[in-house]
Design goal:
The protein is an alpha/beta fold and about 280 residues long. It contains 14 helices and 8 strands. About 40% of the residues lie in helices and about 15% in strands. Strands 1-2-4-3-5-6-7-8 form an 8-stranded mixed β-sheet, sandwiched between helices. The mean pLDDT is about 90.
């Protein structure tokens, strides 16, 4: 029988936050950081991965403040890196592998740059970077990001369906009614989360600070596994090529027939790659 979220759900108080998270398994800590869309949670982003990774590692998948069942936040002051550090401290973890999709990938990169002593491995899928004069390129917000912000205003199953369809390559297989309804219910469970993103305007849910900063990126010492969907309509795969070019100990995997959620569309291969990478680096 497949693992259920209710079996591994936990809540913890850090210095500043009440954080809901999932935890299962033993061994080296692996923290899974979700993306920034409405309805995103540790479980909704990583349900196909948690059980497989927990066969080898201590897996922790939090809802970041502002999402899921964690505290609401003011997005003008929230520091995702500080939240991650508080979570590690509350769980008595000195160093962990960080796996981050989209927004979570950006947070993981910042952690590796700013707090290298806390990051054993850096694993990203579609992290956003400033690649041009405006966010993500000369054309401004990508089609996927436009749909993401629209879904914050309309988190109904219909609105969420439009978002999920642009997040994946194979809409027939992965943009299922079950997934769209699950993410809609998660988003609508706490209207304050949606309102806070809308109130913060274009920089929410995260300010993208890294830019094409080769000095910061080239200073990352953690071994890095960088994955990206060739068909990603939210963040261009060029961002991963930039990271792979500048992180000293990096390898990149580009999936054809894959959108923004490599961990969902290529779950089995993703689980194998992450397991082997952490075990052998």
């Amino acid at each position: 029988m497949a693992l259920q979220e209710s079996e591994i759900a936990r809540d913890i108080r850090t210095r500043d936050w009440q954080i809901h998270y999932n935890e299962v398994g033993e061994g080296h800590p692996v923290v899974l950081l979700h993306g920034g869309g409405p309805g995103a949670t540790g479980w909704s982003n990583y349900a196909p991965n948690i059980e497989a990774l927990a066969q080898h590692f201590r897996v922790i998948a939090p809802d970041m403040p502002g999402w899921g069942q964690s505290d609401p936040v003011d997005f003008n002051t929230l520091d995702h890196v500080d939240v991650a550090l508080q979570l590690l401290d509350a769980l008595n973890i000195d160093k962990a592998a960080f796996v981050g999709n989209s927004m979570g990938g950006h947070t993981s990169i910042r952690l590796a740059v700013e707090h290298p002593d806390r990051v054993s491995h850096l694993i990203t899928m579609g992290p956003p970077l400033h690649m041009g004069p405006v966010m993500f390129g000369p054309g401004g917000l990508t089609e996927g990001l436009q749909k993401m912000y629209a879904a914050y205003h309309d988190a109904s199953p219909e609105g969420m369906k439009r978002l999920v369809e642009i997040m994946v390559h194979d809409k027939e297989r992965f943009a299922s009614p079950e997934l769209t309804e699950q993410r809609s219910a998660a988003a609508l469970r706490n209207q304050r989360h949606l309102d806070n993103v809308i109130a913060a305007g274009p920089k929410a849910p995260i300010p993208i600070w890294i830019g094409a900063d080769k000095a910061k990126i080239s200073g990352i010492q953690a071994p890095a596994l960088l994955m990206h969907g060739r068909d990603d309509r939210v963040v261009s795969f060029e961002t991963t090529l930039f990271l792979a070019t500048n992180i000293p100990d990096a390898r990149a995997v580009l999936f054809n027939r894959c959108g923004h959620w490599a961990q969902l569309e290529h779950a089995d291969e993703f689980n194998r790659l992450v397991t082997d990478f952490i075990r052998h680096n």
